Each structure stands twice: as C-alpha cells, then as structure tokens.
Give the backbone structure.
Amino acid sequence: MNRAAGSSPVIIAGAAESPQLGTVPGQSAMMLAVSSARLALRQTGLAWADVDGLASTLPVVDLASYVGIRPGWLDGTVVGGCSSMLHVRHAVAAIRSGAASVVVVAHGESGRSRVGMPPRAVDPASMAGQFEQPYGMSGTFSRFTLPVLAYLHTYGLSPDDLAEVPVAQSEWAAGNPRAYRDKPLDIHAVLSSRMIAWPFRVLECCPLTDGGGALVLMSARRAADLDLEHRPVTVLGSGESCEGPGASFMEDLTSFAGFREASARAFRESGLTQADIDHLMIYDAYAHVPLYGLEDLGFVGRGEAVPFLRSGATRPGGSLPMNTNGGGLLYTHTGMYGMFAIQEAVRQLRGDAFAAVPGVRTSFVQGIGGMFGAAGSLVLSNT
Amino acid sequence: MSARFVPVPTPETGTYWEKAAEGELWLPRCDSCGRAVFYPRSFCPHCHGDDLTWFRASGRGVVESFIINHNPAPGYEQDAPYVIALIMLEEGVRLTTNLLGVEQTPDAVRIGLPVEVVFEQRDGIALPQFRVITGDGASG
C-alpha cells in the first residue's frame, strides 16, 4: 500500500482523441484506441512500461497484449456508451487504494466502417431479445426512443420541440473540421430532415462514426515530478448506476433512475452542487436524452428542459454551456460516445477546445449506456 | 421478404411463451407482495419474495408511448412505417408491441388508447401483439 494515493487527488494527466475521426476505413477499432492512448501517454512523459492499470471498451486483455504490457489492474466493464465514465470512476478507486498507479482508459470503435468489430446482434434469449426486439426493432433509433412521447405528453410539449437540441448544439459544432455534422442548423433544417422513427428525424439521431480516445489517470502526487504537457484535470467526484435491459423496462418513462442516482452520487462525492458547475456534457445519442439529463441531474425542474434550451442557456454565451463539441448528435458517435464527452470536458478545462468557453473551472459529464440502461457521472475541475 | 426476429424462451420465461401458444397472456405474480412481475424472473424484484405464481392476465391495457419506425426490420418491409408502442396493462406492467387495427400515423395513434392482446404466429412462437379496441369491440 506504500504507493497508494490516499488522499492525493486523482487527475487526468493525459487525454487525446484519435488523430482521425469520422470515416476511418483504414484503421481497426484497436488501432483507433491505441493511437489515442499513445498520444495521451506522450502528454505525460510516461511510457507503456509505467502503465500498471488498463481499462477499455475493447476486450481489455487483447488491448494489453497489443501494446505489450501485463498490467496488475484490469477493467473490462462494458455497459454501453457510459463505459468510459465507469472506467474513470473505477480507476480513481484503484489509484486511491494503491491497486494501480498509472491507469490508461482507452476507447476505440469502428462504428461506421466496422473494421475489427464483432457483428451487431441482439441475443434472442436476452430479455430485450424476447420482449422488445421481436416488434420490428431495426436499430437503437427504434429502441432508445420508445419513451419519448410519454415525456412530451406529460409536459404538454410538441414532438417538434426535440429539434431544439441539435439546433442549440450546432452553434458549438459549426465550423469544427473534426465534427461529423459541422453546419449551423435551424429548426426548419432539422424538421425537414429525413424521418427515421417518428418523431425522430435524422438530425435528431446520432450518426455512426469511427474514432477513439484515451485518458491517463494518476494521483497528483505521482504526477508531481512529471513535466505534463497540459494543465491537469482533477476528478472531484463520480457516480454510476443502472436501471434495466431496455427502455420498456424503465420504472418511469419520463425520468431515468440511472441519471438521478449516478449524478447524485457524483455531486455528493465532489461536494459541489448544480450551481457550481460551469460546463455540462450530457450524452446525446438521440435528441431526447439531454432533456431527460438536464431534469434528472437537477439543473432544471421536471418538464423545464425544452424552455431552458429555447432560452439559449446552453448555447455560446449562455449560463450553462452544454455539449460544446456539438454532442454525439453532431460531433461524433462511434456507438459508445462516452469517451468523447469526457474528452470535450477535459479540453474545456484545459482551455484548448475548438469552441472554448472562457473561464471554465468545473465540468459535469453525464453518460448513459444501453437504452436507458446504465449511467456514469463525473465531476471534473481544473483547480 | 426476410424472416422476422424470433425470440428464444429461457427457463424463467417458458410459461409466458407456452401460454401464448395457447392464445392466452399469462404473467407471474409475487405470492408475498402481490405485484405482477415483468419481465418474468425466478423471484420477485420488488420485495425479493421467493415464490411467484403465474396467472392469466386481462390482456387489456392502454398505449403509454410509441414511435413510428420508418426503417423496417427484417420481415417488416411491407408494413413500414409501423408503430412500436409501449402498453401499460391493467395489471400494472408494461409490454412492447406493434399496434394493430389502427392507421399507423401520429394523428391516429394516441396515448391512452385502449388495446387488447392478440397473437401473431411467427416461426413456432405465438407473439403477443395488441390491437386497438374500437367503440363496438370495446369489452370494457
């Protein structure tokens, strides 16, 4: 236990995305993860030989073998898109306990080109396979979206109100060469885009892309004698939770228990409240998810997310900048988007985001996994 | 047209599918707390009671939410766009379904529409589906 970080804060010392993002047919999922991890490690001045903890959305043993290490701490948690948030949370615990001192969290996914990826399939004997999938499900756009009309109906909202989400976020993504959808959008553009699963149009659904991202975590004490390339980002708090194997199994179709409970844990651990948060990332595979997130995380009251967006609060210059990379809807979405939400929060806290928000000191990152299945929350700070 | 997705029963769910094959909707109910349980499990997730007893459900409920899928799954090519709905049963559990007996449009389908169970024969499985109860057919 002599290497245990104890009370020393755990920091994100390195963070990088794959150099190529979007459509990358020349790289496997593993290559996308490894190229990111090498860049992130380089920012810390450490080498693979220094890495004694490894967490990944890819098969973690395969990744360890690929990079030629035998780490003493492994985390292969895969609970969908928020897996990277859980990896960070678990890494913090491992570093605090002394189980690991330098942890690489890596994600790579060839979601668009499907290079080095297992086939997509729903197990017909799983509960979602027996009770949801037989009813003409043809993609996550037909499963993740199921509860939304109950939400809209409860709060007297119109299905067209979903367009507020990509419209607000497009102000952040506009002109970013790394964004998959980099054009400014107005309500008309969203509502006239192709219908995918009513009420969701294509611009209210994430694209499917190729990409990777990686983080290097360690205690501030371990980093003390390193010449870090970037300002460190401290993990002030984290939380995780879960609800069920499909959206139809939610207790309440208008609110996600995973969001409520994971975020409450992260706030409690960080000692911060919603009022202390300068910047927010909420996983947005589909346009309704940030609406649930804003309410379930307690940033607005029930049914208030759409008016909040419409007020401009989440746009450039607003009081709560949200999804400032354009989100999964516009920036990139490899299938599991969580790593990219964390990367954007780190960039904002380092001050080197494409659409940098001035004076950001704290960021809250909320992930979701499966179809309202799992949740992971992080509270990050640069002070 | 390719084949529709066929569920594979497991030991916990066998009774659900066996009764469906007989044209009946059955659910497990907890002997301790009395709540219906869905999806079927080996014990009660509400009070963690050990024993569940299967009973025949009313087969009636209301539409709680829905989407209209414009990108058909295999076997649904002729039906697109088609409704995928969530039904709240009178017994307090929620099932996913397509919606029969109603135009597949946002104007025709409404939250709160009353529905009743029917069964679709699909490759050796009888799949519970729901159809809208119209004025005359409403059984109350």
